[in-house]
Amino acid sequence: MEGNHTTTNQKSEGFPMVEQLTAIFCDIDDFCIEYDKYCKTHMLTDGRHKPLKTSMHLSEIMTIAVFFHLSHYREFKWYYLKCICGHAKGCFTKLLSYNRFVEVMQSVAAPLALYLMKHSLGKCSGISFFDSTSLEVCHTRRIHSHKVFDNLATRGKSSTGWFFGFKLHIAVNDKGEIIAFCLTSGNVDDRDWAVISRLTKEMFGKVFADKGYLSASLFKKLYSQGIQLITKLKKNMKNKLMDITDKVFLRKRAIIECINDFLKNICQIEHSRHRSVAGFLVNVIAGLVAYSFIPKKPSLYISPDFSSCFPLLA
After folding, report:
1. Greater confidence, 9 or 80?
2. What 8-state DSSP symbol labels residue 133?
3. Single residue among 117, 140, 174 that ends a domain in this structure
4. Which of 81, 120, 129, 275 is spaced 20 to 30 A from 210 at the CA atom?
5. Cα→Cα distances 57→52, 182, 275, Å
6. CB contact at 8 A, 133 and 162
7. Are residues 69 and 50 located together in one domain of the fold?
8. What are the phi and psi torsion angles at 162 (to 5°)?
9. Residue 312 domain-assigned?
């Protein structure tokens, strides 16, 4: 009886986790049904590259990869053996060994990216924020011995110093939802037009950014597309008149810094234990997907009626 009582307590403690895991699986499984139909009718095969055969369904593999970034486990091996093969074992029909699952998980990068683009990104509301964050793949002292990202990762410099790895450029709306992203090497400038054009593909209204996006040519290009770029001025620049609402939103630009902190410390998109490029991509994409499932995101809570937000203007 004592053993059964302990088991009952463990199951009751796992209910919130199981409910969240089930909700993520249902959403991903609906996507995988349409994805399988599309692949059967549109995918071209040459006979040499055969799909990877496994007893687990694609939606189950994607769910496990995404849920890792919401489980607060720091190591994937411990998460898979303790959480998935332990507490959540009854949620899956047939689980693979850890080594086999890691091998199979690298093949879900493409469907996971499609799911992110189609189901996990928010929509532009007319008020957007730009920023980039560094993704270090190793310590700067071990650059010369690092081989996993050879000819891919580069040295870069952020506001916190030099790093070796990649840059994640993101655009978010006032609700804290990611509306666009771009992954580049570490030495790519934040004002690079190839990056900005991808972030602003479906954007309109005003976008707020830090001083790193100051550029007259960039402002003109965005303005010609109906987008107004608003940034802070440097100390050696002449002060200009600014609308009070723009000034308030510029002060609220820290929302995107909070989102970067969520992605790195809660969704864990950055670590130095990658053993393959495919594994790195799955980790980043799954982390971005996991962020979309966070119920309470950093938000500005802006009312549609701006006069209620700014009583002085009413």
Report:
1. 80
2. E
3. 117
4. 120
5. 11, 29, 24
6. no
7. yes
8. -80, 150
9. no
61's CB contacts (< 8 A; 6+ apart) are 54, 101, 104, 105, 108
Do both 83 and 203 map to the same domain?
Answer: no
Tell me: do 183 and 202 sit in the same domain: yes
Total structural domains within the chain:
2
What's the chain's length in residues?
314
> Could you report the per-residue pLDDT of 221-265, keeping only the tens digit for each?
999 999 999 998 777 766 676 788 888 888 888 899 999 999 999
Does residue 135 fall inside a structural domain? yes
Domain span holding position 98: 2-117
pLDDT at 65: 95
- Give per-residue burial for 87-101: e unless 16+ CB within 10 Å, then b: bbeebbeebbeeeeb
pLDDT digits (tens, 9 = 90+) for 180-202: 999 999 999 999 999 999 999 99
Residue 182's CATH number:
3.30.420.10
Q: Are residues 20 and 160 in the same domain?
A: no
Taking the C-alpha atoms of residue 75 and residue 81, their distance in angstroms, rounded to an integer, is 10
Chosen domain end from 84, 117, 150: 117
Residues near 204 by beta carbon (within 8 Å), at least 6 away in sequence: 124, 126, 226, 227
Separation between Cα atoms, residue 289 and residue 112, nearest integer Å:
8
Domain annotation covers residue 301: no
Q: Where are the beta strands (DSSP E) in 151-235?
A: 154-158, 161-173, 178-185, 205-209, 227-231
Question: Please, are residues 107 and 53 in contact by the beta-carbon 8 Å criterion?
Answer: no
Query: Are both 127 and 266 inside the same structural domain?
Result: yes
| pTM for this entry | 0.86
CB 299 within 8 A of CB 174: yes
